[in-house]
Every structure is written in C-alpha cells, then in structure tokens.
Amino acid sequence: MNEITERIKSPTPKFFKKIRTIGLTLGAVGAALLTAPITLPATVVTIAGYLATAGIVASAISTVAKEDKP
Question: Membrane-crossing residues (predicted)?
C-alpha cells in the first residue's frame, strides 16, 4: 500500500501526462454521451461505454507511472 502511495505522489513522465489527459478526455466524452438527455442508438451507447472505460483505465495507469531515478 505504501508503494502505491509513493508512486502516485512521484513525478509523472511527460508522455504519461499526455496519456492521462487523453484518457480523461475520452472518459468525459463517454460519460457525456451516456448521460445525454436524449435517446441515442444502441451502438452509440455501447461505444460511449467503451470510451468511458478506456479513458478511466488509461488515466489510472498513467497516474501511477513514475520516472526512474538515475
């Protein structure tokens, strides 16, 4: 548990910061489509679910990436 806390608090490499931003954007788009007040086709709802899931996973993984100490 302590190691996970240290990984989250450590500096994130530049590449993974970009991945985290993309993941958060995908998750937000997916969530917006899933909670839209209009009826959407089943295909769009399915894709939105996949977008939200992929975004959450990408953000979580990129958050715990850390730079190696030289």
Answer: 21-38, 44-65
Look up tokens 């209009």; give the residue: 38
Supply the angle between the helices 14-34 and 42-63 in degrees, to the nearest 10: 150
For 52, the token pair is 């939200």
**Which sign does the torsion angle of CA 57, 40, 29, 35 carry?**
negative
In total, the chain counts a number of residues equal to 70
